[in-house]
Amino acid sequence: MSDQFQAYQIGKNDEGQRCVLTQLDDNDLMEGDVTVRVEYTTLNYKDGLALTGRSPIIRKFPLTPGIDFSGTVLESQHADFNAGDQVILNGFGVGEVHSGGYAQKARVSGDWLVPVPDGLDTRRAMAIGTAGYTAMLCVLALEGHGIRPDAGDILVTGAAGGVGSVAVAVLSKLGYRVVASTGRLQESEFLQGLGAAEVIDRATFAEAPRPLGREIWAGAVDVAGGNTLANVLSQIKRAGAVAVCGLAESMNLPTSVAPFILRGIAMYGIDSVMASIPRRKLAWQRLASDLDLQLLDDLSFDLDFADLPQAAADILDGKIRGRAVIKLP
């Protein structure tokens, strides 16, 4: 007899998509060579879009959403993993075309998994989650560009969100002077506690961008896109760089080539979904060593599995601060 397990499942009919908490069994698991007992998952902006149906994130129905999870291997036919191994998964279309983390059990390709690094456990791995892992990919991009702490201020937009809060914490621990931009100035104390030297209103970047502005930032991590990113690019110092990982404001970019060819700046697109396994392992190892785990605990909070649908709407409305961690029942 197949074991039953709880899962959210999204289906679609003529009236649109609908998300329900239901019981599935092993016959409902998708193809893969590793079966994982999911212990923790989290809530990302993309998960909010998927659960609410505000954007066509889900491309195969019915499907269990959840773009990341951590847990323990139950069965494996993959050479790199054995029963009992603790693993992390994010990206590779999981939660979009392959059932994801909002279930007590998942079957996936072992080629998508990375081991939980020394220094982390499965809960803290999801306190970091895709958002924190994306933040570290941004940090690696800025470091790879040669931006060091003595180069000047680093701007982080959307700083009170998942990506932004981890980026602030990591960059400040590495010795950078971080300026946090947010539309929620009531979170200033929270951001300063993560290490932000200064907190500014995102309205600073609301005006129509000029091709070139005053040189202010040595580098930046941007989750917004749109007008905000255009303004940020115009203010990057000569030979600086921006790591771009989100479109919370807009997918459009109303800018010109001026800052790129007149100041020699660079813009790095951060693809967290299909990043290589070596790059993923490096990011997770760096998170284990370069993220203050006490700060991580402070910026994360527990979210009940049954409350996911409401929380999905809240994260899209900017009502979620830090990192939501969901323990599977």
Descriptive notes:
This protein is an alpha/beta fold and 329 residues long. It has 2 domains: 4-116 and 296-327, Quinone Oxidoreductase, Chain A, domain 1 (Alpha-Beta Complex); 131-269, NAD(P)-binding Rossmann-like Domain (Rossmann fold, 3-Layer(aba) Sandwich). 29% of the residues lie in helices and 27% in strands. The protein has 9 helices and 15 strands. It has helices at residues 45-52, 122-144, 162-173, 188-194, 226-234, 258-262, 277-290, 293-299, 308-316, and strands spanning 4-13, 16-25, 34-42, 68-76, 86-90, 105-108, 113-115, 154-156, 178-182, 198-201, 217-222, 236-244, 266-269, 300-302, 323-327. Strands 3, 4, 5, 6, 7, 14 and 15 form a 7-stranded mixed sheet that branches. Helix 3 (162-173) links the parallel strand 8 (154-156) and strand 9 (178-182). The longest helix is centred in the middle third of the chain and has 23 residues, at 122-144. It is globular and about 65 Å long. The protein starts with a strand and ends with a strand. The mean pLDDT is 95.
CATH superfamily of the largest domain: Medium-chain alcohol dehydrogenases, catalytic domain
Distance between the termini: 21 Å
User: Helical element count?
Assistant: 9
* Structure classification: alpha/beta
Mean pLDDT: 95
Return the CATH topology of the largest domain: Quinone Oxidoreductase, Chain A, domain 1
Helix content: 25-40%
The top-level CATH class of the largest domain is Alpha Beta
Note the run of SSEs as H and E: EEEHEEEEHEHEHEEHEHEHHEHE
Strand content: 25-35%
- By CATH, the architecture of the largest domain is named Alpha-Beta Complex
Count of distinct strands: 15
Poorly predicted spans:
none
Number of domains: 2
Please give the radius of gyration in angstroms: 20 Å
- Major beta-sheet overview: 7 strands, mixed
